[in-house]
Amino acid sequence: MSATAYVLILDFGSQYTQLIARRVREAGVYSEIHPYNKGMEAISRNAPAAIVLSGGPASIYGQASPQLEKEILSAGVPILGICYGLQAIAHTLGGRVEPADDREYGRANLSYINPNSWLLEGIRPGAQVWMSHGDKVMMLPEGFEVTSSTEDTAFASFESPDHRICGVQFHPEVVHTPDGATILQNFLRKIAGLKPDWSMASFIETTCEHIRDRVGDAHVVAALSGGVDSSVMVVLLHKAIGDKLHPIFVNNGLLRKNEAQEVLSTFEDLGVQLDYVDAADRFLGQLRGVIDPEKKRKIIGQEFIRIFEEESARFPDVKFLAQGTLYPDVIESVSFKGGPSATIKTHHNVGGLPERMNLELIEPLRELFKDEVRSLGAELGIPDSILWRHPFPGPGLAVRILGEITPERVAVLQEADAIAIEEIRKAGLYRNIWQAFVVLLPVRSVGVMGDERTYEHVAALRAVEATDGMTADWYPIPHETLGVISNRIINEVRGINRVVYDISSKPPSTIEWE
Ligand SMILES: Nc1ncnc2c1ncn2[C@@H]1O[C@H](COP(=O)(O)OP(=O)(O)OP(=O)(O)O)[C@@H](O)[C@H]1O
Ligand SMILES: O=c1[nH]c(=O)c2[nH+]cn([C@@H]3O[C@H](COP(=O)(O)O)[C@@H](O)[C@H]3O)c2[nH]1
Ligand SMILES: NC(=O)CC[C@H](N)C(=O)O
Ligand SMILES: [Mg+2]
């Protein structure tokens, strides 16, 4: 994205890092998230107009805690430290950070605001802010000025004499800090002098330019599932490089009922030529006897890549593989060294990739969230019927059949899932729900059907609401609809005699069961 002024966000492992990126984009400025220890590398590659240091779970004075690269502070770029980021600035410049006697979590109010503050311009004393810290700055670096305090925290924010380095102990990126957007705007506009000129339209333009530069005369194969992300990615790349793009759609035998036919006809209508690979036997063969969820994911990730490599031999000069990877796929799969965020599950398209791969990756949506991808898709003119499909994971029904995957179990789950979705659509709920599906449990229970004893599988219905999939709550489908779904599944699908409803949120559960 070399032509665009951007904000470099250095991630110290906060749960909110991705929210910072969003807020910056919402303020009309492009941003990129990099690991905390790769800041200088990013700066030397492409100088940012401003830097934000995220929060993080560690204590800056602790052994092996993620440290701020000292040169960042003298790079001449305006810097905003948030929570751990503020503590890192104070610690690195000779201030003092210590464990607090009174830890502060949740609501707090700024009892004092320094009228000289550039960052807090327009914010009134008493403003609510959201806190989440157990450590405190006890002494400021030389020359720095305190710009606000709460009852428990003397140094709730500070600024350097020239106002270009500042920090806030509270979290301006969360909605519970009502003035957070103003504070971030003050930083971006007043302190860093950035203009709000980033939009989805400019994203399309710069991304296309960037892809054309990178690809040159080479050809690109694209992994297309027919889902939201890869459909948007394919249309974007097609705009950038035209016929040098070869989308490949793989039937891994783990798709939903009739999905392969539907995807083929949708893209035929859109006038996009697909390379269709029916590899159901290959995937199901590899997965035989495997029950460990992480093993399933890795096997599927590797098999996908092998197929893409094999297929790419059918086209001339293929050097790249394009995928519809999004930011949440990355953050939940990767944990970088010394750091902070944990691996939750290996998304097949990120951590599931084999170590040696002959194709270079192109992932133009890697920094975006699903709702942003949907608005990008709308900007590209993609129909709502594609953009508003529920997300469906690449490993497909493999992570919804707990225990061993067999062709019979796949068929049972496909039927049950199709009934649930059909009834959810009929009830007019499809678009209110982020994702709904059925999970087949490796548990059997006793039932009675037509005076006969049955001993069959239990199915779980899951429906969640979310905006980006990073957090989610279970969706309250009305009892009447639940009743119809359960009734139809038990009556129409042989092999299931009991349906339960999953009422867990994420966290502490996840959306998929594996
Ligand atoms: N059956 C498939 N054939 C080819 N590529 C696939 C397939 N399934 C997944 N992929 C690749 O893996 C990526 C990640 O899958 P993921 O499910 O997150 O995205 P999606 O399918 O494009 O969108 P959605 O999240 O809406 O389902 C896809 O963007 C695509 O590049
Ligand atoms: O393409 C994908 N490959 C995967 O390996 C994968 N695992 C989870 N998901 C989807 O990601 C979102 C969050 O899921 P979890 O709460 O289960 O982690 C939900 O939308 C999941 O469906 C995946 N998508
Ligand atoms: N949210 C944060 O960044 C917390 C920073 C640090 N771990 C503390 O507890 O004070
Ligand atoms: Mg998908």
TrEMBL record:
Record-listed E.C. numbers: 6.3.5.2
Active site (UniProt): C83, H171, E173
SUPFAM superfamilies recorded: Adenine nucleotide alpha hydrolases-like, Class I glutamine amidotransferase-like, GMP synthetase C-terminal dimerisation domain
Keywords: ATP-binding, Glutamine amidotransferase, GMP biosynthesis, Ligase, Nucleotide-binding, Purine biosynthesis
Catalytic reaction annotation: XMP + L-glutamine + ATP + H2O = GMP + L-glutamate + AMP + diphosphate + 2 H(+)
Top-rank EC class of the record's enzyme: ligase
NCBIfam families: guaA_Cterm, guaA_Nterm, PRK00074.1
Subunit structure and binding partners: Homodimer.
Name used for this protein in its record: GMP synthase [glutamine-hydrolyzing]
UniProt lineage: Bacteria, Pseudomonadati, Thermodesulfobacteriota, Desulfomonilia, Desulfomonilales
